[in-house]
Structures are given as structure tokens and as C-alpha cells.
Design goal:
501 residues; alpha+beta; Purple Acid Phosphatase, chain A, domain 2; Immunoglobulin-like; 3 domains; 7-stranded mixed beta sheet; 21 strands
Length: 501
């Protein structure tokens, strides 16, 4: 049987033009004022980063001045956001929130909201059902000015759209919306957005982020190369890059309306292609970066030093791996050198014990080896552990597994053929920043579904999970910043079920 025939057995491919998808927003597009290259983003000078802040729209003058004042402090000292000079700069520029709100950890009856307040005044969050009379009122009392804070908004109802308003000292600071998940794994529609490769650039793109928000996803997964870019162990500049993110008007809109789940890759770790404890750095440096990461994202709590975690959203289990900091350089190519033994065993346990219909497993770099010959990813680090994961999925008959990945700029889809005839599906959308990368297509396209080069491609991946007419199904879409659907694949649960040998 030819591969094309196999495709028809495994996949229903539907191509939809953007003028029929109901989300096209071409007339609302904003042209960039400054086009920042990937190399410029990597360099991250004051001039370049300030241009990023102004790259699409002019930010409020106090935002810009606060960034300049704070960056001058971060460049000279190893300080955090609680430093007196940072707090003073925020108050001087009338900045009530250095960062936030950022939504995260969405549940059937609760959601976490992250803030970085510039003062110790109480923050009030008023939550109301969009359709209904349900109202909740919460107050967060900041412990220290500049310290990241989280509040869990609980006591909510399942599958309800809520709107919320954030105030302090009778001043409105922010607002947004979110939808709680379904109850007891009910087969209600779940929409999840994913991608990687913002490289700071994409955080400021209102076209891309407006399109994402209009899709009304339940959550978004960021797979790495996000806000920080090549800062090595300079924690002050890591924090400066996070401040640049948090002052972006486009990012503010995304984080206030879409729960965010994030993992890192090389550029927001130490630097390009670095992992584990690189030469010239220490375990103490790695620990500082892990701590700093947890302070600046709103992932579910997990009692490990690394950043991997899992959570369930409706009928979908999200499993986000740390495929960067656990690598053991001196053992590269040996079993356990990529995820480490502890994370590898954790992943196997999560897969075996999950009761969700579908499971998404993220990897900062690609699962398959077809692009760049597996450069800096599973194929050149730990094929034994990867094979163990694949075998576990088959032998334990774990249904509904989807693989997602990033790192290799562009967007691609692959099938991974197993000896039993079962195929795993990998979708990669490393295209949030529209930066150049390797060729779109592999030299051998036998198992490749589609491919797009990274330069100028500002697109994200989307999964929509639903019951379907006869069985659960998931629809993958690749969508660009205008709302155009570039690729669409529909997979049923039976197609994502291993074959019995």
C-alpha cells in the first residue's frame, strides 16, 4: 500500500480558505513600524529592545519610560523586581502592575491569576458570568512590592464563560475573560492553541495575538524560545526581557484572556543549543534560571526543581516536558541523557495513569529526525528513551496521544511509523515570531504531512477536541496571523489508537 493510501486511512484532510473560516481579519491588520531580525533579537541591545516595544503600536509613554528606567538597573546589578530602584521607577511612572494579569491553570471550578504588583495595596478581582447572575469577589494582598503573586479564583461553575475586572485604590487596572473546563471529562469541545519561537518579536504582534484571542481557546501552550533571548546566566537581563514582555500591549491582551502554559528551550535557557549544565556554567546557575522561570510564568504547581508538569483540561491531558535543563552532556547518546531518569519515569507514570481521552506531549525540540538530522533533539541525544516512550504507548494501548514540538523555525507535520503499523502524529509550529530557519521539507518526505519555512510565517497550531458523530475526534489547524487556515487535519480516536500485535 502506498503512503498516500495510508494517509487516507489515517487522516481526513480538509483545506479551508480564509474567507470561509469566519475568523479572517485582514482589514484589521496592523503593519509593523520596525522589522527586527532574529540576530537583532538575539543581540538584545537597548536600542533593539526599545524598538521592539514600539514595533507595532506606540505604548503609553509611562510604560516606555518605566522600561528604560528599570532596564538601566537590571543591566548594572543582579537585582530582582523587588529592588527599591525598580519599585521606585514603577511608582514614579504610575505603573500599578509591573506584570499581569496572566491567566493559567484553568480548572472546572477555578483559575490561577498571576500578578507582579508595584506596591502593597490590595488588588480586587471581580468575576461575573457572561451569561448569568453568578458573581464572585476576591482580594489579593501583595506581600512585597515587585514580588510575583498568584491568586486562585475558585468556587466557579464548570463550562462557564466569565469576565473579570482588576482594580486597586478604586482604579481599574485590567480586564479579561476566560472559560472554565467541563466537569468529569465530559465530551464538550476543547480548543487549545500552541506554538514556539516568539523570540521576543512575536509578543508585540497584535495581528497574531488578536487572531489567537478571537479563536476563543481554552488555553495556549508555549513550547520555548519565548520572552528571554540568549542572556546566558545574566539573571538581571532575563528579568529585563520579562519586563519587555509584560509591558507589551499585545502580550497583555493574550495573557489576560487565554490561560498560558509554558516550557522553555535553548534561547530562554542559557543560549543557542545549550542545555543541562553547559561548560562555563554551574548547577547553581541552572537552579537560579529554574527559579526565575517559575517566578515569571503561571504554570500549575509541581514539586520538582525543574519545570515539567501535567494537567487536564476537559477531555485532554497536557504533558509539558523540560527537554532542556535535565540533559547530561557527558552522557549524550546514552539512555536518560535527554529527560533524565526522574522525568522519564514521571512521564511514563503520567501516561499510564491518565484517564483523559486525549494526551498531548510537548517537546521543546522535535520528536522526529527528519529536519536538520535531529540536530539538538531526541535523535542525537536519546533514541533509547524515545523508543521506550513509543513502546509504552503501544504496549499499554494508550489512546489519543499527540506529539507537539518546536525549535526548528517554521511549521511542519509528520507521522512516525511504528513496526506494528501504528502511526504517531507530530505537529510543529515554531512560527510565532516569523523568523528564518531550516528548509520547510525534509530530504525524504515519505512521512511528512506538510511544511512551511519560518521566514515571514507568523502562524500557530490549534487543536479542537470534540465528541464527533460516532467517536471522539481532534482537528488540527495551522492558522496564520490573518486568520487564514493553512492546513487542516481531522483525526479520530481510533486513528490515534495503537494496533494490537
Amino acid at each position: 500500500m502506498s503512503f498516500k493510501e495510508l494517509q487516507y486511512l489515517f487522516i481526513i484532510i480538509v483545506f479551508t480558505l480564509s474567507n470561509n473560516n469566519g475568523f479572517s481579519q485582514t482589514r484589521d491588520m496592523v503593519s509593523p513600524r520596525h522589522i527586527i531580525s532574529l540576530n537583532e533579537a538575539h543581540a538584545g541591545s537597548l536600542e533593539i529592545d526599545t524598538m521592539l516595544l514600539n514595533s507595532y503600536v506606540t505604548p503609553p509613554s509611562n510604560n516606555r519610560q518605566f522600561y528604560l528606567d528599570a532596564r538601566a538597573v537590571f543591566e548594572r546589578k543582579k537585582v530582582d523586581f523587588t529592588n527599591a530602584r525598580i519599585v521606585e521607577a514603577a511608582l514614579k511612572n504610575d505603573i500599578h502592575l509591573m506584570g499581569g494579569p496572566m491567566l493559567g491553570d484553568i480548572k472546572e471550578n477555578a483559575i490561577s491569576i498571576w500578578f507582579r504588583p508595584s506596591n502593597e495595596w490590595p488588588i480586587h478581582i471581580d468575576v461575573k458570568a457572561v451569561n448569568g447572575n453568578e458573581e464572585k469577589h476576591y482580594t489579593l494582598q501583595p506581600l512585597t512590592a515587585g514580588q510575583d503573586q498568584r491568586i486562585v479564583i475558585d468556587g466557579l461553575s464548570p463550562s462557564i464563560q466569565y469576565k473579570y475586572v482588576v482594580t486597586s485604590q478604586e482604579t481599574a487596572l485590567a480586564e479579561g475573560t476566560f472559560r472554565t473546563t467541563s466537569e468529569n471529562n465530559e465530551n464538550q469541545q476543547v480548543r487549545l492553541i500552541f506554538g514556539s519561537g516568539f523570540h521576543k518579536i512575536g509578543f508585540h504582534n497584535p495581528n497574531l495575538i488578536n487572531t489567537i484571542v478571537k479563536r476563543e481557546p481554552n488555553a495556549m501552550m508555549l513550547l520555548g524560545d519565548n520572552a528571554v533571548d540568549d542572556r546566558d546566566a545574566n539573571t538581571g537581563m532575563h528579568r529585563s526581557d520579562y519586563l519587555l514582555r509584560d509591558l507589551s500591549l499585545a502580550w497583555k491582551k493574550l495573557a489576560a484572556n487565554v490561560p498560558i502554559y509554558a516550557s522553555w528551550d535553548d534561547h530562554d535557557y542559557f543560549n543557542n543549543d545549550l542545555s543541562g549544565v553547559p561548560e562555563g556554567f554551574t548547577k547553581k546557575d541552572r537552579k537560579k534560571l529554574r527559579t526565575l522561570w517559575r517566578q515569571n510564568w503561571n504554570n500549575p504547581p509541581h514539586d520538582v526543581e525543574g519545570i515539567y508538569f501535567h494537567t487536564q483540561i476537559g477531555q485532554v491531558e497536557l504533558i509539558m516536558l523540560d527537554t532542556r535543563s535535565y540533559r547530561e552532556i557527558e552522557r549524550r547518546g546514552e539512555y536518560g541523557s535527554y529527560l533524565g531518569a526522574e522525568q522519564q519515569n514521571w512521564l511514563k507514570d503520567v501516561l499510564k495513569n491518565s484517564t483523559a481521552t486525549f494526551k498531548i506531549i510537548s517537546s521543546g525540540t522535535m520528536w522526529s529526525d527528519d529536519i536538520s538530522n535531529g540536530k539538538d533533539s531526541w535523535g542525537t541525544w536519546d533514541t533509547l528513551a524515545r523508543e521506550e516512550i513509543y513502546e509504552l504507548i503501544e504496549t499499554e494501548n494508550i489512546k489519543g496521544v499527540l506529539l507537539i514540538s518546536g525549535d526548528r523555525h517554521g511549521a511542519r507535520g509528520f507521522t512516525i511509523l511504528r513496526p506494528s503499523g501504528y502511526r504517531l502524529f507530530e505537529f510543529e509550529a515554531a512560527s510565532l515570531g516569523g523568523v528564518p530557519g531550516p528548509p520547510a521539507m525534509a530530504s525524504d518526505t515519505t512521512n511528512q504531512l506538510f511544511g512551511y519555512e519560518g521566514y515571514g510565517l507568523k502562524a500557530f497550531g490549534e487543536f479542537t477536541f470534540e465528541q464527533g458523530e460516532s467517536e471522539p475526534k481532534v482537528t488540527f489547524r495551522l492558522i496564520d496571523e490573518t486568520g487564514k487556515i493553512m492546513e487542516e487535519y481531522v483525526l479520530t480516536l481510533s486513528q490515534l489508537t495503537p494496533h494490537h500485535k
